[in-house]
UniProtKB/TrEMBL annotation:
GO MF term (any one): phosphorelay response regulator activity
UniProt KW Transcription keyword: yes
Keywords linked to the UniProt accession: ATP-binding, DNA-binding, Nucleotide-binding, Transcription, Transcription regulation
Protein's name according to its UniProt entry: Anaerobic nitric oxide reductase transcription regulator NorR
A single Gene Ontology CC term: cytoplasm
Chain ranges of the Sigma-54 factor interaction domain: 351-584
Gene name of the encoded protein: norR_3
Keyword Ubl conjugation assigned: no
Domain PAS: 223-264
GO BP of this protein: propionate catabolic process, 2-methylcitrate cycle; regulation of DNA-templated transcription
Length: 669
């Protein structure tokens, strides 16, 4: 026994030294364990602690009950303590009054038998009193007859009950008390012998459980703090509720978005604001997703999703997003991810010419660009309708946003619907996996140009009308409409009014499109612009065709008769084609015979013969009639046009659809 006491004293002195060192050099990365005892248990804890200093930090608290709670709360609030190790009624009290886990040093049957053995060996024949926490051992009572020991038991739940238990056992003749440290202390005060109940093995087991639990708690706490830090910096509002609807967590953004008063009862305000969403999710067992709600005078996008753990619903999480922020993000994404081909390249200044008809187009286009009104461009094929549409877009407040062009005559009816309005995954056989946004969605905040609108199938005209009226599109296979902010510019070479009268085109769609109509003149009605336009186009492509300055002038001189007398049924597109052909064949072919050139340029042959041919003028060097079949103007027509124009030859030639050279020749003849 003496050797045991000496060995224990030596281990305790080493333990205290090591334990104090670990407190003096804390490692914040290790979990913290508080060792709470007001009696002899502390000595065993200080003996065991050095073995675990590499795994945890230990804090010694020599207080009990309320005083221990007060001392520990500072450690808990600072995040230093993750687990508390205690025993008996003191541990039970701490477990009920602290927010961190409390590990109890448990007494097992071997500890009790070992203590009884020590008592009977040291004090043979003495009556023994056993003091246990909460309940006595009925199994031990049944074995007392076999143990040939005079053993009496008492249970306690508080320090006062320990004192009463020891006093009662002493009154019954017990000379030795086995129990926790407090019972041993009271026994010594009463002049009785005592045996400490807790063994080193029980304390070691408690340390193992405490250190492991502290490690897991620290990991969970680190994850919780990390998650809370992330959520706290989110612009979206986030709030978590338990299954009873009580608030578990909420970030500052949620309070700001809902306009809650932080000086008042925040959980009550939050529950009032989002309570209907929680009830709806609970009653229908379905999440609420991307719903627009007016809360606190603001348009918010709200989601309410149930939290399911191991197949059991344990609460809900509500997220709130400012609708205006979502719109800005949407615009930014559409702008940054917009394909290069969705950019309008042309401006209204790219319209070349100074004729009155073209100036009228520019004036109307600028007026239309100043507003978001739907524009209808009409005119023959090749008159530059898409160029004007791009110019209107670039002159409007929507410049910089998408410009999407679509030819309504380019695809079959089924594909047109999918292209314009989009489709969900599985909407039809061959539908793109994941679905596809339509051109109206792609053009959001920008302009969509619907060319050849007169060719749109009748079945799709009603869908287009709905988009124009409601400003929303519904994908194929979807049951939800998507709002769009799109400016529509339509174009056609056909007479839509006549199509309406024939029942081919919807009247209501026509009137919706025909808000601001701009008619583009054919090239033959602005002959004064043809030469300037030809030079502009040829200069732009001179590098492509390797044209020198002299070759460029030679091409223009060769084509001059066409500029003045050809009808240009293909308009600007035909002019570009002709210029490209001339640049290729005439750059080094100035000496070629007319017979060869006539095969390359049949346009000369299409000019109506005039009286000038009789006088020997070559076909490519004189004025001709109109290839469209119109009657060539006579001298009487010229005189009448001059009279109506007040002698203005330029105005008279425009009225007759001829060049001023032809006008002068007719006057001379």
């Amino acid at each position: 026994m003496k050797r045991f006491v000496e060995r224990f004293s030596h281990e305790r002195s080493v333990a205290v030294s090591t334990f104090t060192s670990s407190l003096a050099n804390p490692n914040s990365g290790r979990p913290g364990v508080a060792l709470v005892s007001i009696s002899r248990l502390q000595s065993l804890c200080e003996t065991v602690a050095p073995r675990y200093t590499g795994q945890a930090r230990f804090f010694s608290v020599r207080e009990g009950y309320g005083a221990a709670v007060t001392a520990l709360q500072a450690y808990v609030d600072a995040g230093s303590v993750d687990v508390v190790l205690a025993a008996g009624s003191n541990g039970a009290y701490l477990r009920d009054n602290l927010s961190v886990p409390v590990v109890m040093v448990k007494v097992n049957g071997f500890d009790v038998l070992s203590a009884i053995t020590r008592a009977t060996t040291t004090w043979p024949g003495a009556k023994i009193g056993l003091v246990l926490h909460e309940t006595i051992s009925h199994e031990l009572a049944d074995l007392s007859a076999w143990l040939t020991v005079g053993l009496k038991q008492r249970a306690y739940r508080s320090i006062d009950e320990v004192r009463l238990a020891v006093a009662g056992l002493a009154a019954e003749g017990c000379k030795v008390i086995i129990g926790p440290g407090m019972a041993c202390d009271f026994a010594q005060q009463a002049g009785l012998e005592s045996v400490f109940l807790y063994s080193l093995g029980a304390v070691e087991e408690a340390f193992e459980r405490s250190v492991e639990l502290a490690r897991v708690s620290r990991q969970k706490e680190s994850k919780r703090v990390r998650l809370n830090t992330i959520v706290a910096h989110l612009r979206d509002g986030v709030a978590a509720f338990d299954d009873a609807g009580q608030v578990e967590a909420v970030n500052p953004a949620m309070l700001d978005l809902l306009g809650l008063d932080r000086e008042q009862d925040v959980p009550a305000q939050l529950t009032r604001a989002v309570g209907p969403l929680l009830r709806e999710t609970l009653e229908h067992d379905m999440p609420v997703e991307e719903r627009i709600e007016q809360i606190g005078g603001r348009a918010l996008i709200v989601n309410c999703v149930p939290i399911v753990e191991q197949g059991v619903r344990s609460g809900s999480v509500v997220t709130v997003q400012d609708a205006l922020v979502a719109q800005r993000i949407d615009r930014s994404l559409r702008t940054s991810q917009r394909p290069k081909h969705l950019v309008a390249r042309h401006h209204l200044d790219d319209l070349v010419g100074h004729s009155m008809a073209l100036e009228r187009v520019r004036r109307l286009a600028r007026a239309g660009a100043a507003h978001d009104a739907t524009v209808l461009l009409s005119g023959e094929s090749g008159t530059g309708k898409e160029l004007v549409a791009q110019g209107i877009h670039n002159a409007s407040r929507r410049r910089g946003n998408p410009f999407v062009a679509f030819n309504c005559a380019a695809l079959p009816e089924g594909l047109i619907e999918s292209e314009l309005f989009g489709h969900e995954e599985g909407a039809f056989t061959g539908a793109r996996r994941g679905g596809k946004p339509g051109l109206f969605e792609i053009a959001h905040t920008g302009t969509i140009f619907l060319d050849e609108i007169g060719e749109m199938p009748a079945a799709l005209q009603s869908r287009l009308l709905r988009v124009l009226q409601e400003r929303e599109v519904m994908k194929l296979g979807s049951g939800r409409a998507t709002p769009v902010d799109v400016r529509v510019i339509a174009a056609t070479h056909r007479d839509l009014h006549a199509l309406v009268e024939q029942g081919v085109f919807r009247a209501d769609l026509y009137f919706r499109l025909n808000l601001l109509q701009i008619e583009l003149p054919p090239l033959r009605e602005r002959r004064g612009d043809v030469a300037q336009l030809a030079r502009h186009l040829l200069n732009r492509s001179a590098l492509q065709y390797g044209l020198s300055g002299a070759a460029l002038e030679r091409v223009l001189a060769f084509l001059t008769p066409l500029f003045e007398h050809y009808a240009w049924p293909g308009n600007v597109r035909e002019l570009e084609n002709l210029l490209a052909r001339a640049a290729i064949y005439l750059s080094d072919s100035a000496g070629e015979g007319w017979q060869d050139l006539q095969a390359v340029f049949p346009e000369f042959g299409r000019m109506r013969q005039t009286a000038a041919d009789v006088h020997g003028v070559t076909p490519h060097a004189h004025a001709a009639g109109d290839a469209s079949g119109r009657r060539s103007p006579t001298r009487e027509d010229v005189a009448r046009a001059l009279k109506q124009a007040g002698g203005n030859r330029a105005a008279a030639s425009r009225a007759l659809g001829i060049g001023r050279t032809t006008l002068w020749r007719l006057m001379r003849d």
